[in-house]
Amino acid sequence: MIQALVEAKGISRRFEGRRTSLNALRPTSFMIETGDQIAVVGPSGSGKSTLLNLIAGLDEPTTGWIAWPGIGQRDTLRPVAIGMIHQFASLVPTLSVAENVALPLRLGHIPNEAELVVDVIETVGLTPLADRLPGELSGGQAQWVAIARALAPRPKLLIADEPTGQLDQVSAQVVLDAVLSRTSTNDMSILVATHDRKVAARMKTIWYLEYGQMHFQSNTC
User: Fold this and answer.
1) pLDDT at 186 over 80
2) According to the 3-state scheme, what is the secondary structure of 124-156?
3) CATH number for the domain including 136?
4) What is the pTM of this model?
């Protein structure tokens, strides 16, 4: 029997304002298993980032429950068990490329830090930039570093929120090739929120969000 990495039952998220309220995510249930490749698509404001934050344990649902039976307790999810890639790199400006990539390994007290850093840096072609500071990188190079940083601990689940939003189409596909190769090699699952149809087409499953309502389908592209 396959153990779910993430399981949610009837979770929703409602944000209350002083005069208004917003149903960012309407009640939904789902399961994420090892090897899943899922694209979360939908218009801006449809609830994609809200969903990703709930799955990453960064937020709590208003109703329902979510658990990580194949990963761990909520307070132990990041930065090791769940890796996160955001649209903007958010690198530590005073740390070199190699040091930024090593950061989750150090925070998670993972052994063989040096070997893991060298491995992932070589995989994504960052070796010539290893000693540079973020201020010396282009936007695309910085995003590669952020991707390497998320992949370095070999998480069980990789969550990416518009990871190719700052890249051109060719670069976006190169990034996706590297990420999918890495996740397949290490039996990771991946969940990608994206507006890019070509990125979504590379995933096995589509979760479509509209006005906070989730729809599931297999990807036949």
Assistant:
1) no
2) CCCHHHCCCCHHHCCHHHHHHHHHHHHHCCCCC
3) 3.40.50.300
4) 0.89
